[in-house]
Amino acid sequence: MDINDLLRMMVEKGASDLHLKVPRPPVLRIGGVLLPQEEMSPMNAKDIDAVFEQVTTEDKRAIFNKKHELDFSYSISGLARFRVNVMQQRGTKSIAFRCIPFEIPTIDGLGLPQVLKEIILLRRGLVLISGPSGSGKSTTLAAMIDYLNDTVKKNVITIEDPIEFLYKDKKSIIRQRDLGDDTDSFTVALTHALRHDAEIIVLGEMRDLDTTSTAITAAETGHLVLGTLHTNNVAQTIDRMIDIFPHEYQQQIRMQLAHVVTAVTAQMLLPLIDGGQIAAFEIMRTNSVISNYIRDNKIADLPRFLDVNLDVGMQSMNRSLAELVMQGKVSQEDAMLRSHDRAGLAKMLKEAKTTA
Predict the structure, then answer these.
(1) Is the pLDDT of residue 349 over 90?
(2) Cβ(159)–Cβ(190) below 8 Å
(3) Closest by alpha carbon to 138, among 80, 172, 98?
(4) Are 302 and 234 in contact (CB under 8 A)?
């Protein structure tokens, strides 16, 4: 089986993901829905092994044989790049491909909130992009970086696992480091980025205490640091940053975050009524009130405060969901299913419909 043919089919059908697993035919995710390709034969272990051999190097195979899991990127010239994850399950390999277009999407083209243009041009601080897996965090971050690249002259270093979108230098200089191939760890790479005259540091994921601690320190020393987290909303993102530290250090971390966090976004994908998907966003930009909330451990109060600062680009997730419903883009049922405060969303929708 030639994996390149499968990946071309994936791109032609507009799929975001391709899943290969024994004993099923290939499965595509299109518009957020998993669709088995029933016209194709079920794959056996030899088929999966052949794909694995085709997309990996000897070094990568050695890592997998030791750890039984592997992340890397794969590229087909003139088609697209793919983020690949391989894991062992029930004694066989399971492989997932995520499509990453060569052309970086724009903030305007994706219909993302315009305030993201202001956030990426901040001079310093910590910016956190959050959302569940598969919600489009990497795409949002790439669109923000590309906007910066088109707009200002900055020295940018990204640390990714693996490298996804490929940037070309425009006004800015952008260096991209791949975890494993270019550096041994996020923490070491982050430390060296500070010595490489970086003004902006982009972390693929803030996944451990050392990386998080170094990122906070970098933001404190005058750099703009951007990182992603697998969290569902702004309050949970701040809590996750604090909870990763031992209890005796958490009050100190609250003080530091109150000082360095400049913006937090959370996003989720919803099905459009007419087909496809659209992102809803919760957005927080730090001011003195929010800094006090973080420092005083009143993070649960954040969502209510966001909606009284709409004029500076803030909004709660419920506000974003309500607007998508009122615009006729998503159904009320889908919005309610994804809301973390359904009573609050129901009230917001009732008030909006009364006003309308």
Answers:
(1) yes
(2) yes
(3) 98
(4) yes
pLDDT band at 13 (very low <50, low <70, confident <90, very high): very high
Say if residues 157 and 173 touch (Cβ distance below 8 Å): no
What percent of the chain is modeled with pLDDT above 70? Answer: 100
Residue 58 neighbours by CB under 8 Å, 6+ apart: none
Question: Tokens standing for 151?
Answer: 């707009």
pTM beyond cutoff 0.85: yes
102 and 73 Cβ atoms separated by less than 8 Å: no
Pairing of strands 200-203, 27-30: unpaired
Looking at residue 122, what DSSP letter applies? -
On the 0-12 / 13-18 / 19+ scale of CB atoms within 10 A, 46 is exposed
Q: What is the pLDDT of residues 200-232, one digit of tens each?
A: 999 988 889 999 999 999 999 999 999 999 999
Nearest-CA neighbor of 344 among 229, 242, 233, 230?
Answer: 233
| CB-CB contact of 239 with 224 (8 Å) | no
Residue 356 pLDDT > 80: no
Per residue in 239-260, pLDDT tens?
A: 999 999 999 999 999 999 999 9
Residue 229's contacts (CB-CB under 8 Å, 6 or more residues apart) are: 128, 129, 130, 205, 206, 237, 240, 241
3-state secondary structure of 267: strand
Let me know: does 18 contact 8? Beta carbons within 8 Å.
Answer: no
